[in-house]
Amino acid sequence: MKKVDAVFDMQGRLSRLIEKFESQGCESLLVTSLTNIYYLSGFTGSAGLLWVDGEKALLLVDGRYGEQAVEEVESSGAQIEVEMVGSQQTERLKSIAKGTKAIGLEAQSVTWSKMKLMEKTLENSDLVFTEGLVEELRQIKDEGEIALMKTAAEIADKALSEIWPMFEEGVTEKEISTSLDETMVKNGADGTAFETIIAAGSNSARPHARPGDRTLSEGDLVVCDMGALYKGYRSDMTRSTRIGGTGTGKPAEMLEVVLEAQKAGLSTVKEGVPNSEVDSACRKVLQEAGLEEAFTHGTGHGVGLDIHEAPTLSGISTDTLRAGQVVTVEPGVYLPDVGGVRWEDTVIVTEKGCEFLTHSPKTI
């Protein structure tokens, strides 16, 4: 798979973040989520703090990451100063924060112990807990992000096509998942987007089953949920099948009805549509088939640097789809005495509908 080098508007990201400070009641933000630090700076290390205010952005790292941080920040194009502070991090943070009345903290990544430490370190400032400031920016993907996600999806598509002949009697779930993971890496992935799910027979009725030593048998429904990781970005796709052909009866009905439900949901995706309508479109098809109660999770979620991120496509969502969001549509039906079926694609929301990132066949 040909490598893709994406260009990001890093300074634009910082500017849009700073614009949000006033509405949140803060003058600066101390970014502690490593995923958000990567999004804003390009830094991939396992420890660091990013300070952002209206005049400057500073990345504080320890001795393990000094050279790496400088290289990654420069490569990303972010206008961020890197400082190697080591054991002096607390004192340096105090000096940076001096004179700042209100400092925003990321509520979702600050633990109780971190909060108590921040209260001591930043005792002369008011601490404001913010939610989703950077995550809100991450919802709308730019061209660079889309390019990487397309590559991640292409890698997964290619890998699945290569190992598809393994879906036959006598092969174990774990053998298929291992081969699939290895094939994605062989085709250019940096790893898997999440733990690959290969679930057969009764296991397929568990939405997040882990692959084990169960052998695929004639008549088994099989769920394959997979994704590739490429330069920090992820793909997500689920395909379902039945060993030995679709046959007749409940398994065959489930394969067809869930696919129709997914088509209904996908046809609803468009800028300006309430997220809940996508969920409702899927559930209506399943309700008419008497299978709505067997659909036990939300219809979809955002994908990007995290495999599950905003927005959420569910019946309780109050949000509206926006162009540039990347979401999954993945209705499923799970009957313990029969098995499970899920069809999932990742799509880009557009003004007129959606653009598919995942393209593997959905042949019944």
Question: What's the gist of this structure?
Answer:
35% of the residues lie in helices and 22% in strands. It is α+β, with helices and mostly antiparallel strands and 364 residues long.
Please report the total strand number as a whole number.
19
Mean pLDDT over the full residue set: 95
Treating each run of at least 4 consecutive H or I residues as one helix, how many helices? 11
Structural class: alpha+beta
CATH class of the largest domain: Alpha Beta
Cα-based radius of gyration, to the nearest Å: 23 Å
In the CATH classification, which architecture of the largest domain applies? Alpha-Beta Complex
Overall domain count: 2
Ends distance: 28 Å
List low-confidence stretches. Answer: none
Strand order of the largest sheet: 4-3-2-1-5-6
**Relative helix content:** 25-40%
Which percent range describes the beta-strand content? 15-25%
What would the principal axes of the Cα set say about the shape?
elongated
Order of H and E elements: HHEHEEHEHEHEHHHEEEEEEHHEEEEEEE
Polypeptide structure, described:
The protein is α+β, with helices and mostly antiparallel strands and 364 residues long. The two termini are 28 Å apart. The radius of gyration is 23 Å and the shape is elongated. The strands form six sheets. A six-stranded mixed β-sheet has the order 4-3-2-1-5-6, sandwiched between helices. Strands 7-10-11 form a three-stranded antiparallel β-sheet. Strands 8-9-12 form a three-stranded antiparallel β-sheet. The protein contains eleven helices and 19 strands. The model has no long low-confidence stretch (mean pLDDT 95). Helix 8 (143-163) packs across helix 9 and helix 10 packs antiparallel against helix 11 (275-288).
